Every structure is written in C-alpha cells, then in structure tokens.
Amino acid sequence: MTNDLAGHIASLMQRTSATSLREIDDLILALRKRREELLRESDRVRREIIEYAALSQSTVQSTRIIAESLANFNKVPDAPSISAQHLEDVSSEGDERRSGENVRSLSGDPEIPDAARTPASEAP
C-alpha cells in the first residue's frame, strides 16, 4: 500500500507541477509579447517626439523669419504721401462733377450739353 500511495502522490505531484509549469510558460509567453508591444510603442513615441521637435524647430525658424521681415518692413521709408491740400482739390473736383451731373439730370434731356441749352427767356 505504501507503494501505491507513493505512486499516487508522485502522479498527483507530476500533474500539479505540469499544470503549474504550463501556466508559468503561458505567462512568460504573454510577458514576452507584451514586452515586444511596449518596445514597438516606445519606438513609435520616440519617432513622433523627434518629428514634433523638428516641426517645432521649423515653426520657430519660420516665426523668426517673419518677425525679421516685419521689422525690416517697418524700416523701409514710407511712400510719398498725398498732401491734405491735394486731397481737398481732388475732392472738390469730384463734387463739382457730381453737381454738374445732377443739374443735367434735373434739367431734362441728358444728351444736350449745358452750353447748348438756351434759357427759357431766350426761347422763341
């Protein structure tokens, strides 16, 4: 009976240890897969950080160029300005033209120039 009991215990230990070893092997396999995933993700994040840094540096350089261009733009001498008197003269000419057009449109036939019109007192 001692032999049977010893054989039974050995068989039980073997099954238990086989199950435990299989579980440990499965865990090791899952951990290796997870490690590979983490390494791939780490590489992807590293590439994205490098890409972001390059884009950021490019943005800073572009901003610096634009700022320098604007600073130089402000240093360029202004174009000759139009004097206030000239603006008043131009405005007056426009007012005179518009008032002449209004007189023609109020006086009747727009095809007859003002100089060709005869006053009503001189009409035959």
Explain briefly what this protein structure is.
With 124 residues, the chain is mainly alpha-helical.
Structure description:
This protein is mainly alpha-helical and 124 residues long. It is 79% helix and 0% strand. It contains two helices and no strands. It has helices at residues 2-75, 84-107. The mean pLDDT is 78.
User: Over all CA atoms, what is the radius of gyration?
Assistant: 49 Å
Strand % is under 5%
Portion of residues within helices: over 70%
Order of helices and strands: HH
Average pLDDT confidence is: 78
* Spatial shape: rod-shaped
Count of alpha/pi helices: 2
Terminal-residue CA separation: 159 Å
Give the strand tally: 0
Q: List unreliable stretches of 5+ residues.
A: none
Biggest β-sheet description: none
Broad structural category:
mainly alpha
Question: What are the defining features of this structure?
Answer:
single chain, 2 helices, 79% helix, mainly alpha
Secondary structure elements and their pairing?
Blueprint: H1 2-75, H2 84-107
